[in-house]
Amino acid sequence: MNLCNINHSFNYELEKLCRIFLPYEKINILSMVEPDSIYAVSTLKKEERLAVAELFWADKRFYHEQTLEDDEDKTAELALASSLFRCFESATGYTPEWGLLTGVRPVKLYSRLYNSIGKEKTDGYFKEKLFVSDEKISLCYATMEPEQGIVGNNSPDSFSLYVSIPFCPSRCSYCSFVSHSIDKAGKLIDDYVKLLCKELEKTAEIAKDRGLRLRTVYIGGGTPVALSAPQIEQVMKAISDNFDLNGISEYTVEAGRPDAIDADKLRAIKNGGATRISVNPQTMNDSVLEAIGRRHTAAQTEEAFRRARSLGFDNINMDLIAGLPTDTAEGFENTLKRVLALDPESVTVHSLSVKKAANISINNSLPEFETGKTASRMVRHARGILTDRGIAPYYMYRQSKTVGNLENVGYAKSGYEGLYNVYIMDETHTILACGASAVTKLRQPGGDYIERIFNFKYPYEYISRFDEMLARKQGISDFYDRYPL
């Protein structure tokens, strides 16, 4: 669609607003009106103190204007977004539950306002100014308290370690992560693991030299159990040999795909020091699993979970996805029922996010509004049934191009909250990250400034340019020279 912005420069903000309703559409930003099949015009009329929006959709014109309360840029930006939102709402008959909000961390905004003006005024602002539904306001409030409790246990010298294993048994159709099927990239794994261990050793040296204290470890992917049991042992030994694990509060391995989990790998993970794992079905409906390219069944998920229990894992998370192709609200309810019968300590409910790299997006197989409405029913039901079982929300984040403009929520029994999930989403403390596509996030001690160091994205780059990438680790020391503990 074409978006013409007149007398203002809020291009980025209004483009994101359009993507709430048209997540897969190319948005062309123009300074002059050029009609298209769908096009919008937003105009700031400062002299008249008006923010005006027009939307042309299916040969109909939709119009909305809003009076500006003051001359501040933020006021004008919000008024223009509000007017355009109302036009889209009228044209589509669809009201996104997060309203105008497009940010990753709505709880962060909610808690900042809550601590400043209190609950009643914060709820009013979210509802009246940002058009957020009562359900999502309630979710923000419910998530805020456990998040703040976890964040409050930090100190300026604390950090978490993230380790990336960017390989999978096969690539799921919805996936846009940097992950490679072992059928295509298996020959890279041995070299990758050796170099990853070297990076872990170097990272540990820097952390020790700077007096940083490790709080949590998270091995993710991809699918870490795409590695063999000896390779898993090799990586986890590199962590335990080089980092001080005595003071950690959590050690998570994202076991992930049930078709890659076996007893030897689980023993390697357990012996390596992990205290928490994920067994991730995404859905417990076999027809949906087949539709998204997952090479396992719901029965295999149950088998993998029970095997982990029998080997002593007493903190198991399970990931689900709402809005998967061919899934229904009733099918998702069945998924929740079967997952809860296993009695996991935590459940993470993701909303399907389709990026450009995902096969679903390429195949153009998602009718946005209907899928969004169905996914909304799914996540609402999940919150209700999980909360009733004493599995409460403890962290939340959002992604772009998510069906229904929805959210991802971690639910856990009391005492089983995933600490790393909160630390990474809240940007609470430094994250030292190793492996292909890993991003180190350095947080200023006693401040809010964040600096990032990027590893090479793909495993073949990581291997072929390893020395060049390893030299970037000097940036950690340089950061703490500028911002000492």
**Count of beta strands:** 18
| β-strand amount | 15-25%
Low-confidence stretches: 357-367
Here the CATH topology of the largest domain equals pyruvate-formate lyase- activating enzyme
Choose one word for the global shape: globular
Question: How many domains?
Answer: 3
> Mind telling me which CATH architecture of the largest domain this is?
Alpha-Beta Horseshoe
In round numbers, the mean pLDDT is 92
Name of the level-1 CATH class of the largest domain: Alpha Beta
Largest sheet: 9 strands, mixed
How much helix, percentage-wise, in residues?
A: 40-55%
Rounded radius of gyration (Å): 23 Å
CATH-assigned homologous superfamily of the largest domain: tm_1862 like domain
State the end-to-end distance: 49 Å
Major sheet strand order: 14-15-13-12-11-10-9-6-16
Based on secondary structure, the structural category is: alpha/beta
Q: Give the helix tally.
A: 18
Core attributes:
18 helices; five-stranded mixed sheet; pyruvate-formate lyase- activating enzyme; Double Stranded RNA Binding Domain; single chain; alpha/beta; 485 residues; nine-stranded mixed sheet; 3 domains
